[in-house]
Design brief:
Number of strands: 23
Oligomer: single chain
Structural class: alpha+beta
Distance between the termini: 39 Å
Strand content: 25-35%
Number of helices: 13
């Protein structure tokens, strides 16, 4: 059973469907892409219906459940399934606080000496404003809770910062998610996403990725959930990856275990490569999106085997194999995204993109009869692999150029200028 319905889940289901160990996959709720995969069937259950999902897993005698999005993890789905004697891949509710509460994650990193930006935590507007007035520089403002990837705000000056703080703490812009906020120092440098499989003790890193958060070319426009990505990131040298594993990932696992919440699942470290070394911007407690769509096509090993090794505590016996290739994914979004957008447009010529050597992962789509319709803001993630990032990008854009739906928007510079 795979829980979720986006591009990340389509990529996970696609990879799992290649495993000889996997007979059947249910995706709840799935999308138009998962509906067409071999061995795969969508089931009409939403990600927040934890009890119904658990009942379904028991009724179908599911051998392994995989959780895609963060919200059910933060809500305790892993604890619920484990109490019912079901195998499930993902961190417990206590361990998922690393993503569910930025305040928890910041204090955890400070306790365990993990490099991160300086931050102060507030749930009172007046106290936050007093702190702001004492700062020389304009801070980054973060909602502590889950805000669907939109909770990190970059005010341009202190007047703007004051307005952002008011919108979070007083106007409750993100509801409960902004009851607590962080005012954090602004770090400078390139960003890197490093995801790792974890079994509570051992980590196995995936190829490092870089994603594109802004809507428009040259990193202009509003922040989004991600408009594309490439992997492996040339910045991530073997030396840097070893440093991050020793200074960030392993201390995080050791710290969580010491605090009674062993971390099992995918740990995603969002990092800033500063002049004084890598620092953690945030942790996520699951596969990233769109990073999953660019990383899993590079995986040669059996994904089901790796996930089971994480659950069984035997990850030290598994070494995932990765292609010596590069991958690029380009997100095609609906007109109006990341704000209000229309749905229900027919998507055509996906098979022409696939014929051009692309893997087209559905993010916000639904199957209606034989037609694929748009059903979300980020609609498709078009992925290609190649000998270099530029070759992979060229092929991905060939695929993008063949697909049509009304109002499609996408960046033209994903993977461009990367050596």
């Amino acid at each position: 059973l795979l829980i979720g319905g986006g591009g990340r889940e389509h990529a996970i289901a696609w990879k799992l469907s290649q495993s000889a160990q996997v007979d059947r996959i249910w995706v709840a709720p799935g999308n138009g892409g998962t509906a067409r995969l071999p061995k795969t069937e969508n089931v009409a259950l939403e990600v927040h219906e934890l009890t119904a999902l658990c009942d379904f897993a028991q009724q179908q005698a599911i051998d392994l459940t995989i959780v895609g999005p963060e919200a059910p993890l933060v809500d305790g789905i892993v604890d619920l399934f484990q109490a019912a004697g079901l195998k499930i891949f993902g961190p417990s509710q206590a361990a998922a606080q690393l993503e569910g509460s930025k305040a928890f994650a910041k204090q955890f990193m400070q306790r365990h000496g993990i490099a991160t930006g300086q931050a102060a935590i507030f749930n009172d507007f007046d106290e936050a404003m007093r702190h702001l007035r004492q700062q020389d520089d304009t801070p980054v403002v973060k909602a502590s809770g889950l805000a669907a990837g939109k909770g990190v705000l970059l005010p341009v000056n202190k007047i703007d910062a004051a307005a952002v703080i008011k919108s979070l703490l007083e106007d409750r812009r993100f509801g409960e998610a902004s009851d607590t906020i962080l005012l954090e120092e602004r770090l400078e440098g390139p960003e890197l996403s490093l995801l790792a499989f974890c079994d509570g003790k051992t980590v196995r890193t995936m190829p490092a990725a870089q994603d594109y958060k802004r809507l428009l070319d040259r990193n202009q426009g509003p922040n989004t959930g991600g408009m594309g990505a490439f992997a492996p990131a040339p910045l991530a040298t073997p030396e840097l990856l070893a440093q991050i594993e020793q200074e960030v990932l392993l201390p995080t696992l050791a710290g969580m275990a010491a605090e009674g919440s062993p971390y099992v699942g995918v740990l995603y470290a969002g990092l800033m490569l500063t002049q004084t070394g890598p620092k953690v911007l945030e942790f996520n407690c699951r596969f990233g999106d769109p990073e999953t769509e660019v990383i899993l096509p590079l995986l040669e090993s059996d994904l089901a085997e790796i996930l089971l090794a994480c659950i069984n505590g035997t990850l030290d016996q598994v070494t995932p194999r990765w292609q010596k290739q590069a991958a690029v994914t380009v997100v095609m979004a609906a007109k109006g995204y990341p704000n209000d957008y229309a749905t229900g447009s027919e998507i055509t010529l996906i098979e022409q993109a696939e014929a051009a050597g692309c893997q087209v992962f559905h993010a916000g789509t639904k199957l209606k009869g034989q037609r694929i319709l748009t059903a979300g803001g980020r609609v498709l993630a078009v992925t290609a692999t190649g000998a270099t990032i530029s070759k992979a990008a060229s092929q991905a854009y060939t695929g993008v150029s063949r697909i049509h739906f009304n109002g499609a928007q996408y960046r033209k510079d994903i993977g461009q200028g990367i050596r």
